[in-house]
Amino acid sequence: MEKIETPDIVRPPKELVEKLAHIGSATTAGELHRLGIRDPHLHGPVAWTHGKTVVGPALTLQFMPKREDLYGEAEYSDPERQLHRHVLYHTQPGDIVVVDARGDMASGVFGGMMLTYFKGKGGAGVVIDGCIRDWPQVQELDLGLWIRGVTPNYHTQTNIVPFAVNSPIACGAVLVMPGDLIVADDDGVVVVPIKLAPELLVRASQHREWEEFTRLRLLQGGELRKYYPLTDEARVEYEEWRKQQGK
Predict the structure, then answer these.
(1) Domain 42-192 maps to which CATH number in 2.50.20.10, 3.50.30.40, 2.60.40.10, 2.60.120.260?
(2) What angle is formed at CA 145 by the lines to CA 149 and CA 209, rounded to 5 degrees?
(3) What is the pLDDT of residues 107-126, one digit of tens each?
(4) Strand runs labelled E in the chain
(5) Does the predicted model carry a pTM greater than 0.85?
(6) Helix ranges restricted to H, 97-231
């Protein structure tokens, strides 16, 4: 059999990833809109491991409708033909696997063994517009998971087959390029075009800081009209607060 070769991704500086980890998906989505990306939210996958926040580069996997003359193998007949394995072979610490599974609710893209391997390689999270299987075992791995659901079926048992690794995909109706940054938490999953990530970080950090001040004032009974968003009057207070905080 001819050896399958799949491309790796270009990963961003770790410092950039670490700083974005403190921003959150809601602030990220709002600031991306101001940078010209109207809707970066991946519709469909939702948090299954609540309380997790992950930020990292996207390893991408594309599924296509099954056509038996091109793909007729059973689950274990020729494992190395199965491209869902090959995307995991690229895993480095902090990576996030993003899968266009076409919203299919009958095929388990990854199971317990595959996700155990991913966890062991340092993978941070999995985003699938579709399902996984072996949920009782998978939930013990403490991985960040954003999926549509679970199924007992394996990945090619029904309607879809893995087709391409680290190519552009449409996950949750949003274009994801290999190596784009993913920001995922309980609000959902947002894709950050890598070229916009540095400017996003600057804007989002400023946004997060004034919201911290605003939240404090609102809890103290402050007026919404004054503090959200900041009026010129409130901004004077905000700058004084920043000095007191040593910022």
Answers:
(1) 3.50.30.40
(2) 130
(3) 999 999 999 999 999 999 99
(4) 46-47, 54-65, 96-100, 125-128, 131-132, 144-147, 149-150, 160-165, 169-171, 174-176, 181-185, 188-192
(5) yes
(6) 112-120, 135-138, 197-219, 224-227
Q: Is pLDDT larger for residue 209 or for residue 203?
A: 203
Q: What are the structural domain ranges in the chain?
A: 42-192, 199-244
Output the six-digit token pair for 240: 């004084």
pLDDT at residue number 8: 98
pLDDT digits (tens, 9 = 90+) for 123-179: 999 999 999 999 999 999 999 999 999 999 998 889 999 999 999 999 999 999 999
| Those residues with Cβ within 8 angstroms of residue 235's Cβ, 6 or more apart along the chain or in another chain | none
Report the DSSP beta bridge partners of residue 128. Answer: 99
3-class secondary structure, 75: coil
Read off the pLDDT band of 79 (50, 70, 90). confident
Give the separation between CA 149 and CA 56, rounded to whole angstroms: 22
How many CB atoms are closer than 10 A to CB 229? Answer: 13
Beta-bridge partners for 59: 97
Give the Å distances, CA to CA, from 66 to 160, 227, 236: 5, 54, 61
pLDDT reading at 75 higher than 70: no
- The answer to whether the peptide bond before residue 229 is cis (omega within 30 degrees of 0) is yes
- Return d(Cα 178, Cα 171) in angstroms, integer: 12
